[in-house]
Amino acid sequence: xLKPTKTIAIIGCGPRGLSALENLFIxxxxxxxxxxxxxxxxxxxxQCGSGFIYRTNQPDANWLNISERALxxxxxxxxxxxxxxxxxxxxYHDWTGKNKDAIINNELEIFPKRSKIGDYLRARFTSIxxxxxxxxxxxxxxxxxxxxxxxxxxxxxxxxxxxxxxADEVVLTIGHQNTKPSKQIIEWEDFNASxxxxxxxxxxxxxxxxxxxxxxxxxxxxxxxxxxxxxxDVARALTEANGGFFxxxxxxxxxxxxxxxxxxxxxVPFSLDGxxxxxxxxxxxxxxxxxxxxxxxxxxxxxxxxxxDNTNYNNGSDFLVEAIADVAANQYLALSNKAYTHNYSANxxxxxxSNYLNNEDFKHDLILxxxxxxxxxxxxxxxxxxxxxPISLDYCIGQVWRHCEPxxxxxMSHSKLKDEVISAVIKLDERMKRYAFGPPIESLQxxxxxxxxxxxxxxxxxxxxxxxxxxxxxxxKDEQTITCNVMINSVLDSPKIEEVTSTIITNLLKDNIIQxxxxxxxxxxxxxxxxxxxxxxxxxxxxxxxxxxxxSVVGVDAILECFGPRxxxxxxxxxxxx
Length: 578
Ligand SMILES: Cc1cc2nc3c(=O)[nH]c(=O)nc-3n(C[C@H](O)[C@H](O)[C@H](O)COP(=O)(O)OP(=O)(O)OC[C@H]3O[C@@H](n4cnc5c(N)ncnc54)[C@H](O)[C@@H]3O)c2cc1C
Description:
Blueprint: E1 6-11, H1 15-29, E2 37-42, E3 79-80, E4 85-86, H2 92-96, H3 100-104, H4 114-134, E5 138-141, E6 145-151, E7 154-159, E8 164-167, E9 169-172, H5 183-193, E10 199-201, H6 207-210, E11 220-225, H7 229-241, E12 245-250, E13 255-259, E14 265-270, H8 284-288, H9 294-308, H10 318-334, H11 346-358, H12 374-385, H13 393-412, H14 419-436, H15 441-452, E15 465-469, E16 472-477, E17 480-484, E18 486-489, H16 503-510, E19 542-544, H17 565-577
Parallel strand pairs: 1-2, 1-9, 2-5, 9-19, 10-18, 11-14, 11-18
Antiparallel strand pairs: 3-4, 6-7, 7-8, 12-13, 15-16, 16-17
Helix pairs in contact: 1-17, 9-10, 9-13, 10-11, 10-13, 12-15, 13-14
The structure holds flavin-adenine dinucleotide.
C-alpha cells in the first residue's frame, strides 16, 4: 500500500534548486514505482534553473570564470516511474553541440557568458518541470518566501504577498543573501541621499540599474569599490555603454587595444590590498603544466583523510599547507625551464611554499613581488598565463590549488574538525581564490588596455583615503586625488549567517531552528543537508544547501558544486524519511 503523499518545499531555484529537484526524483525512482510526493518550488525571480545569477536576459558583460572545458556538468539520466518517465538531459559539453576534442584540446579556453550557461540551466529545468507539472507532482510558485515557521510537525511557508503554504520538509537553496551594510556603505548612503550630484550603487547587479545612467553623452568619474570579478563585469559594461570597444591586436595572447567612446569616462577601482585577480592559463596545453598527476592528487586526498575526522586537531590549516606544498613543489619542479631560474630542491621548495601559504606578506625571489605597479603585475600574470615568460612560484601554487580544490572540498565538507580549524581552511581557500577563481586572460587584457588608454585609473587601487565632498567621493593616495561622482560597490556580501538581513533567515535564527557553525560562517548542517538545531526538543526536517551552509560544507561557491554529491545526499535522506 502507498504511504500518504508528503509535500517537499524547495525554496530558491538557481542551479542548486534545479539539482535538488532532479536528485529528489532520481532517488525516488530507485525506491518507488509511483512517486508519493508533491513538490512546491519557490523562486522570487522569473527564471528557474538559471536563477538570478545565470538569468538569460542579463548583459553580455557578465562572464563566467570557469572555462567551457572545465564545465563538466554531467548529463541527467532518464528517470522512470511506472506511469511516466522524464527524459535524460545532456551534459553541458554535449549540449553545446561542439566537438569534444575541440573543447578539451583548445587553443584558447572559452569562457561562456553567464547568460549562456543560463540557457542550458533553464532548458534543463524545463525538461524535468514540464513532465512533473503534467503529472501534478510539481507546483512552481514565483514568489519570494518571507518566513518559514515550524508547528506541529509541519512547516508553514509565508510568501511576500501573504499566501501561506504548508510542507512536511523544506530545503533552502536560496544562494547568495543580502547582509547588513558596512559602516562605510551606511555613511555613503546618507551622503548620497542628501546630494543631487552623486550616484551610489550599493550592489553591482543587476548591471541594468547602473546602466540607467547616461555614460554615452555625460562625463562620469566612477569609483569602483572592490577589485575582483564583479568589478571587471562592471568595467566591461560601462565601457560598452560609453560607446567604446576592444580590438584584439594579438590573437595568440589576446592582447587588446581599447577604442574609447566620445565622452570622457574614468574608472577608479580600489580595494583593501589593491592586488589584481590572476588570469587563468590561456589554453588546455598551458593548464596541463599545472595539472598534478592523479597519483599526487590521491596522496593529497589521503593526507587530508588522515586529519579530517580528528576532533583534537588544533593547528589551523597546517595539515592542508603541508599536503598541498608537496603537490605544488612537485609541479614547480616539473615546469623546469618554464619556471624562474633556481636550484632549489623539492624540500626547499616545500618550505618556501609553506611560508608563502602561512604568511600573505612572505617575500622570496620565486614569488612575484607585490611592490610592482598594478599594470606591471597584471602584465606578469598575463605573460605567465600565456607561458611567454618564466612562471613564478605563487602563480604555480595558485593554479595547482585550483586543481586540488575538488578534493579539498570533498575531504573538508562535514569533517569532524573543530570550527576554528575549518574556519582557518576556508580563510586560506578564500585567499587563494584570487588565483584559483581567476578570470580569463581576456579580462585582464581588457583591464590593461583600459589602463593604457587612461580610462582605468589604477593610482588609487591600494586602500585610498576617502573623503565625502560636495562633488562626490574624493579618493587620495600618495599625494594624488580624484573625485568620483558615481560610486559602485562591487564587493559581494559575506556568507556570515548572523549578518544576513533577509527575514527567511533572521526568523529561523530567532526560532533557534538554525544556528551558525562559527561566528564568521554559515549554518551548521549534517551530511544529508539537514540543519543542526539549537532547539533540541524538536527535530526539524529543514535542510540548507549551498552558500549559507559554508563552514559545514567547504567549497559552496562554484557552479560545479551545485551538481555535486551533497545534493544527492539530501535527496536520498528525504526518500529514506518517506
Ligand atoms: C554575481 C555572482 C557571480 C558569480 N559568478 C560565478 C562564476 O562565474 N562561476 C562560478 O562557479 N560561480 C559563480 N558564482 C557563485 C554562485 O553562487 C554559484 O555559481 C551558483 O549560482 C550557486 O547556485 P545556488 O542555486 O546555490 O544559488 P543562486 O544561484 O544564488 O540561486 C538561488 C536562487 O534562490 C532565489 N531566492 C533567494 N531567496 C529567495 C526567497 N526568499 N524566496 C524565493 N526565492 C529565493 C534567488 O532568486 C535565486 O534564483 C557567482 C556568484 C555571484 C553572486
